[in-house]
Structures are given as C-alpha cells and as structure tokens.
Design a protein that fits this description.
This is DSD1 family PLP-dependent enzyme. By secondary structure, the chain is α/β, with parallel strands linked by helices. The protein is 29% helix and 23% strand. The strands form two sheets. Strands 1, 10, 11, 12, 13, 14, 15, 16 and 17 form a nine-stranded mixed sheet that branches. It has an eight-stranded parallel sheet with strand order 2-9-8-7-6-5-4-3. The longest helix has 23 residues, at 182-204. It binds pyridoxal-5'-phosphate (PLP).
C-alpha cells in the first residue's frame, strides 16, 4: 500500500531509520560499558520492545503499571516500572503480575515508607518477594527521596521488611534532557547527580547498603555519566526523536542533534484553503501534541503550523507560496513524540512512500 491510501490523520514511522536509531543507541551505550533499559513510554508496543531487546537491551522500563501489564502480556520478561504506585488495587495488580509471570522480572520504583509497608503486606500475604528500586531526588523536584538519612531509612525499612527486596536506585533528571548545547547539558546532568554518587561511595557502601543497580538518564543526557556509577540507561525517545530533541544539539553541531534521525511523523490531508495564505489540515490537538511547541512541516520551511483546535491544523503559507491542493497530503514532524503517539491506535511502518507494516499501539491509554 502507498501512504496516499492511508486514512488521515495517520501516525507513521520511517521503519529503517527507526531500526538504525535502535542499533545506534545500543552501540553508544555498549561503548560506554553500560546496560540499556529503554523507556517504552515512547512507543507502547511490545513488538518494538522486542526489537530493542533483540538489539541488545537488557530489559525495558514502563512508566506505569498498566503499560507493564501490556508489555508482560506481549512476552517482555524484564520490566522496571519507573513511577511509584499507591492504593490497594494497584498493589494487588502488581502482585498479580508476579503470580501470572513467575519467571519474569518486575521491579517497582518507590520513594516513601508507606509504599514499602503496603507492598510488603500484600507480597507477604501472597507469598512472593517484590523487588523495589528507590527513586532519589535528581534535580527535577518530582518524585524522589532526598539523599541523606531519609534514603538510608528507606533502604533499611526494605531490608527489614518481609516480601520486598532492595535492588537499587533510580536517578532521572527529566528537566535537563532538552537543554540546548551538548557541553552545557552534559555538564549540568553530571553535576546534579555527583552528590548521589559521593553518598553511595562514602556512606551507603561502607554501611553495606550499596545499590546493585543505578538506573537513569535519557536521550539528552545518556553520555554525561561515564565513570560515575550508573549501571543502566533509561533513554526512550531516541528511536523516534522529535523536533524538540532534534534542536538540542550534539557533540558536532551545537544546534542540531544528528545522533538519531527523526522517524515519527503525522500524515495529514489538506481539507480546506480559505485564503491564499491559509490552508487547513485534518490534524489538530487530538492527534498532535503541542505541549512542547508546534510541529514542523516536513521539507517545506515556507509552511508553518498553528493549532486550529481539536480537529484542525492551520497552515500558514508565506506570500507567493504555490497554493496547496485540497486532498493533498502533508507530513508533520511532532515536537513531542511520546504525547503524540499516545493519540493513535496504530503506528504505520513506512519505507519511502510504501506502507510496509503496522504496529498496534497496545499500551495506548494504559496510563493506569
Ligand atoms: C523516569 C524516566 N526515565 C526515562 C525517560 C526517557 O527519557 P527520554 O524519552 O527523554 O529518552 C523518561 C521520560 O520521560 C522518564 O520519565
């Protein structure tokens, strides 16, 4: 099938370039002598997760328990759930994952004593042991216990509770991923976690509380940590990229990140052309997220996008631009891959203008 036959708006991915991105990141992480545990919140597809594991990833991350259920059902057997869970229902679902897939590994991130008490109680009742990773504050002021006595207290609470075990620490600095300029970004990323590694070396290790795993890093910061003590990198967006990530720069180009190609795109159709300067496409906020800015139009800098609400996109044509045709397709490059993907049920794999396959986005909407 040709992309011209796809009903729009449609989410498409340049399949060969996505595969290249997957291998490129794996090679880069191998060269740093770290493990890659890609964050699958970007794609929400067990099939793509398998591609990452086949390329060498040692497991995956999911943001949410619901996504972990989808990935486990799809045969992914090593999953780190990177967001704490709360409440009896959620904890019972975590217990059920352990019971349903006894040979799989699930690690749950926590950052509060109450998490440990509740998970320990449910796991002990079920006769299982749940692996816990403690999230530490890494500059983002989101989840994460402060480094110091509170962290030690959490580790000791896990160590003296039944039904739970301490496997390590999560330190993810999400607020630094998009800093423009390679040096500046990597310096900030390293600086913000230096205290943590000093603390591990000078306090936790002598007390016998050293983490087995230290997990963190993203597409923008994965290179910052060499020699510090991270054991695995959680980068996710690299397989798709987006215009925000493209604009952060890399080691060779201050203004453009060429380490990975932008592969995720939205195919849309011109549905109206009310004036010579204004055309309307069928892609609004219900398919293109704009939390990180407006999408760009592929291969035409003389066209710009502005949101026209839920269902419409407004395309501005500069003076003297050739009129667009009603029914003509336009390809948009999203500014934020994760939140754009979560608007679609299907991701079409394309090679040039040929549709060569499709990935159902099974984890879509599974933020539960
Ligand atoms: C905890 C955590 N780890 C890793 C990532 C992946 O980062 P990126 O998609 O920027 O590579 C995210 C993304 O939001 C995250 O929240």
């Amino acid at each position: 099938m040709n992309i011209a036959q796809l009903p729009t708006p449609a989410l498409i991915v340049d399949f060969d370039k996505m595969k290249n991105n997957i291998h490129e990141m794996q090679q880069r992480i191998d060269a740093l002598q770290l493990n890659l545990r890609p964050h699958t919140k970007a794609h929400k597809s067990p099939t793509i997760a398998k591609m990452q594991i086949d390329a060498g990833a040692q497991g995956i991350c999911t943001a949410k328990l619901g996504e972990a259920e989808v990935m486990a059902a799809g045969g992914i057997n090593d999953i780190l759930i990177t967001t704490p869970i709360a409440g009896k229902n959620k904890i019972q679902r975590l217990v059920k994952l352990y019971q349903q897939y006894p040979d799989y590994r699930f690690i749950q991130v926590i950052d509060h004593k109450q998490h440990i008490i509740d998970i320990s109680e449910a796991a002990t009742d079920a006769g299982i042991c749940i692996e816990l990773m403690i999230e530490v504050e890494s500059g983002q002021q989101r989840c994460g216990v402060e480094i110091g006595d509170d962290l030690i207290s959490l580790i000791e609470t896990i160590n003296c509770s039944d039904g739970v075990s301490y496997v390590g620490l999560q330190a993810y600095s999400g607020h630094l991923q998009h800093i423009k300029g390679y040096q500046e970004r990597n310096t900030q990323a390293r600086t913000v976690v230096e205290d943590l590694f000093n603390y591990i070396n000078n306090v936790l290790t002598p007390k016998g509380l050293a983490p087995e795993i230290v997990s963190g890093g993203g597409t923008g910061t994965y290179e910052a940590y060499q020699g510090l003590g991270f054991s695995e990198i959680q980068a996710g967006s690299y397989l798709f990229m987006d215009t925000t990530y493209q604009d952060i720069g890399d080691e060779n180009d201050q203004y453009q990140n060429n380490q990975f190609d932008v592969t995720l795109k939205v195919l849309s159709t011109v549905i109206s052309h009310p004036t010579p300067q204004r055309a309307i496409i069928d892609a609004g906020m219900k398919c293109l997220s704009i939390d990180l800015g407006m999408p760009k139009i592929e291969s035409d800098d003389m066209l710009s996008y502005k949101t026209g609400g839920d269902e419409h996109g407004i395309i501005h044509l500069i003076d003297n631009h050739e009129p667009l045709q009603i029914g003509q397709q336009l390809i948009l490059l999203p500014s934020h891959c994760d939140t754009t993907l979560n608007n679609f049920n299907t991701l079409y794999a394309v090679r040039g203008s040929e549709v060569i396959g499709q990935f159902p986005i099974i984890g879509r909407g599974r933020s539960d």
